[in-house]
Amino acid sequence: MTSSGSSSSKALALGLFAAAVLGGCRGARPAAVTAPAPLLVLYPVLNLNGGPAPSKELTAALRATLEKQGLPLVPDIAVMKALASRRLRYTGAVDREAATVLREQTGATGIIVPTLELYSALPPYRFALTMRLVTTDPEPEIRWLDAYAGTGKDHPGLLGAGILGSMERVRDRAFEQLAASLAASLRAPVPRAPCGDGGAIRPSRSYSAPFLSDAARRTVAVLPFVNDTQRRDAGEIAALRFLGPLIASGTVRVLEPGVVRQELLTYRFGATGGIGLDDARALLELLSADLVLSGTVRTFADASGTTGAPSVALGVYVLDRQTAELAWSSTSNATGEDGVYFFGVGRVSTASALTCRMARGVVDAMLGDRPKLPDSGPLPAKPARGTMARAANEIP
Question: What are the boundaries of the region Disordered (predicted)?
């Protein structure tokens, strides 16, 4: 009797539990299905520091930071195998062939291109890096670009509590900001303000042709600047720093530098570094762009020691493909102390950051009255394909 009662009680309890579970399942809302994040390739950090820098260590640290943000990255070994299959060695930009190979063999939909512009391991630990995300479409397109340029003493805070006392801490701050910016852009693409919160530095002199405001002239190719300074790679950095303001303007489509570089190499332009005005005119018919922007870097100097200020001088021109005439020319000169009013507020600490503000001033003056282009939308997520893609997903 006791055994029978016990069995009945157990059966009743199980029945009530099952009913509660089923009732809860009927009332529960289905879990939201989120789209898979795009599979991304991380290129090695390109060193334009003008001197030695630990590129491998920087690349490894950047990869770790991106993975902490939940960004799915193709393993390095899969990327190297894909590029080696076509003997592609340059990873400072994305050309059509590299985009096709990486899309077909790894399934990647985007490529992250990091470029180191400044690495000074002495106090106050100066660091500058630009990162951009380029699609692996048949015609590679820049979908996101952001940059960091600063020192360990940029935000000292109360009693110096915000001073970063090592190069690793400055590096990590830069990587964390850029990784968070990229992750946010993939979730909800929004235009990035170039140069952070810094204001634009308008050119001291400029000329603009009336047809520059024509909305039909919508594609721009940025060529390496001629470098008239002692700072190695200053022309490459200047060209890179113009990409951000041009993209952020939302009024033109900017060609990926790798596509431009591919044409330069094919026709052997720029072998001596930078593109002169005559060569730029010849390139107008070769590049699929309405406008070509380039210029000359006359001064590019970072601060020496802990109290100096950077200085930059640029000459910029834009050529029009339709008329083969000069559409824009300007001259800009600035130092990091120009906007300082009291207690160092407004000081610019690196030549890269100063160049960005000058580029923003040029672009604002040049394209300020043009209409916005339609939004290109978020980077699509594509499933991995091919044998190399399967291998990439299997590697831990």
Answer: 369-396
